[in-house]
Fold this protein.
Amino acid sequence: MSMHNVVRSPSEDDADAMGAVHVRAWRAAYSGGLMPDEYLDSLSAQARANMWRQQLAQPVADRSARFVVENPAGVVVGFALIGPKGNDSDADDGELYVINVDPESWGTGAGPVLHEEAVDALRDSEFGRAVLWVHPKNHRARHFYESRGWRADDVDRVETVLGVEIVEVRYSLILY
Ligand SMILES: CC(C)(COP(=O)(O)OP(=O)(O)OC[C@H]1O[C@@H](n2cnc3c(N)ncnc32)[C@H](O)[C@@H]1OP(=O)(O)O)[C@@H](O)C(=O)NCCC(=O)NCCS
């Protein structure tokens, strides 16, 4: 057993853990009005796990990478995905599509090592710049990104979830 958080690429066997982390992280991050409660309540760890199982059965796309982080007890407590911006294989920029850590593991260093691997992978894929999208009221995540060099871009987008408009702001990080 390692004394550290360990980052590795996931296999299909990690789908259940990823589904559970996904739902727990979203409920912790987006309750209190950031996303509709009905939407957060409707999230199913099982459904998310099935989605991840299907994705993990596919080979990873060009210039993309998937990571999970295990805590010192060997339990998967987070995951991250990177690749070309907007899933467009012709994009010049990369994107951090998702980084989710189980709320019980927030502040343990699992998020930082996962982020570091994700940024290394973006650089290894030779993107000069990366972007991500974050809810403007997700203060913890914004602080996390800002202390790691990401800067708000002054670009917004709006998505509709169950009839409710969710705003996201874009951040970018210069890689080279
Ligand atoms: C984003 C995430 C991966 C970061 O991992 P983490 O373990 O929580 O990160 P850390 O605890 O190392 O860092 C969080 C920082 O925000 C600070 N913070 C905590 N709550 C805060 C708040 N309400 N407002 C501002 N800053 C806050 C912490 O003090 C810490 O600052 P520090 O690095 O200067 O000590 C994790 O919180 C997560 O999975 N969140 C839910 C999903 C999510 O929002 N993903 C990103 C969507 S774009």
